[in-house]
Design a protein that fits this description.
This protein is of the alpha/beta class. It is about 25% helix and about 20% strand. α3 links the parallel β2 (about 55-60) and β3 (about 80-85).
């Protein structure tokens, strides 16, 4: 297992194991949770912990689109984090990819979509990892480890 990074699944779960406020795009975790009595009061603890996660952050294009990265943005402040985004549909647009490149120190897009918008973007901080039919996640994490990812925080359970 030395060829795999240490992974941490970062999520908020209720006692009954529910990990979201709904499975549709109309439901939004970050907007819904502050309105749940008993949860809103401690939500700051979750966000404080989230700021202490690993240098490599693994997420999905669906989540990135949902939280607004495809929207026009001004004054994006760069953070010292590497994002690994899995997205086949694609959910991210070329603008979304450009915004993320302004935000993170390095961006990996993992996809099976040969027409993915990131393929048209030329940037030294962007690497597109293409798979033919389906993503080999073990192989992907081995590759991430070989690229320096000793620890990866998984920020999304929906792919």
């Amino acid at each position: 297992m030395d060829d795999l990074p240490t992974t941490t699944l970062f999520m908020l779960a209720s006692v009954d194991g529910k990990i979201s406020t709904g499975s549709t795009d109309e439901r939004d975790f970050d907007k819904d949770l502050p309105n749940i009595k008993g949860l809103a009061e401690g939500l700051h603890q979750y966000y404080d912990l989230e700021k202490q996660t690993d240098y490599y952050s693994f997420n999905t294009g669906r989540v990135m689109a949902k939280v607004g990265w495809n929207d026009e943005k001004e004054n994006i402040e760069k953070v010292d984090v590497i994002f690994v985004i899995v997205d086949n549909k694609p959910h991210l647009t070329e603008l979304g990819v450009a915004n993320l490149l302004k935000f993170v120190s390095k961006l990996y897009i993992v996809t099976t979509n040969p027409r993915y918008p990131a393929n048209a973007v030329k940037d030294n901080n962007l690497t597109v990892i293409n798979y033919e039919d389906k993503i080999n996640f073990r192989g992907l994490f081995v590759k991430l480890k070989s690229l320096g990812a000793d620890k990866v925080t998984i920020q999304s359970a929906v792919i």
